[in-house]
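#struct-help
A.M.: can someone run this one for me? Single chain, 452 residues.
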Amino acid sequence: MTTTDISELIRAGKSDTLELKSTFDREAIESLTAFANTTGGILLVGVQDSGGVTGVTVGKETVQNWINQIKMATTPAIIPDVEIVSLDEKSIVVFFVAAFPIKPVACKGKYFRRSHAANHLMSLNQVSDAYLKTFQLSWDSYQYPDAQFKDIDTRKLSLFIEKVNRVERFHLDDDYRCALEKLRLIEGTVPTNAAMLLFSANPLPYNIHIGRFSDFVTIRDDAQISDTLSDAFSRTMQAIAKHINISFKIKGMEREEIWEYPQVAVREALANAIVHRDYQNPSDIQIKIFDNRLTIYSPGRLYGNLTIEALRQDSYHSELRNKLVAEAFYLTGLIEKYGSGITRIRKAVAEAGNIDFVMEELPNGVLVTFNKRAEEINGGITGGITGGINEVLDYVNMHPGVKGGEISGRFGFSQRTLERLLKELKEGRKIIFKGSKKTGGYYAVESSEALE
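D.P.: on it. Structure tokens below:
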């Protein structure tokens, strides 16, 4: 690596694949471990976080001693490539580590991954996912505890076989055990997690919760769906249709349904939530329907190396947390094509022309939102909060201390419109601003009172 290369790296600053350390210490080894558990990276020792080059003293045995420390601290042992580069007459030690083939790698019993230019301690689920991914396994391929073939609902399995053969992406024989073996849904005589999710004769503790809200706290109607996955999918789509506006267009002799939110987009978002959710997370899939938006929350963060930014740019490779469930949905036509769901959602939303699609990664899951664009901001505090005012109030409720700029960026309001909405909410004693102009933020009145 040349001095020019090093200078460019330093100028670019810390990232998901670059760490800067003024000295070699425990955190330096943690960075190498984090790189090994994600996509690999480079560690520069002798450079401050700010980019200032301090250099390090390199003796005859220095580099070898550091490599030995890395090997002793990591399991499986990491042996990085090392170079010494002189910049401004100061020595910088450059460590290169590739993504490790067997994951996860531990650093003194702890597991780290690289994200947002920092090292993060991996959760138990992330450690488990990394291990399964290494061996090309997924959680749904493991045997379901204490399950037997008699726990399978053969009526549901029969309907599944019929649907697979009708879609014609694969062919299954009518022999139930043979069909399960062909799709790797049974190990010996024991059904896998996927088989039980798809065909269990009895309800499993994986629910979909649907609520119809008048505002952030008032629920008009709610329901909980506990069923095998394909049936839960169908029942949930029916429940959503019950709570949104649907119009009809006559085309020749046929009647076409036009959903308030694009049906294709909602269908894809729901399929993604079911297929990609983390079934080791005890939370339910949650669907909330408001007057001006529809949200779908799926437990479990994005799997593997997927990021929200990559999904926004459609520059991602599909990674499957539940491979067998995904295959079942694909073979029955509930998934059109692997890795195309987000693209199809965007296309459907763009064609609708009056909906905005937002995807967010939360601490324990993924939230997608379909926002209706308000053609005009009307009403006010008197007579009910509607349109953009309702959106802002709900957002402040969910994000206490939020700043005006973030609200504007979230909904695309002009500065003038935002000021008007905030003024009406403050005059109606629905929100309050607390703190200084630079560091303060907006709180719902109930939230701000709780802070007193």
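A.M.: thanks! Residues 154-167 form the longest helix (14 residues).
D.P.: also worth noting: The longest strand covers residues 90-97.
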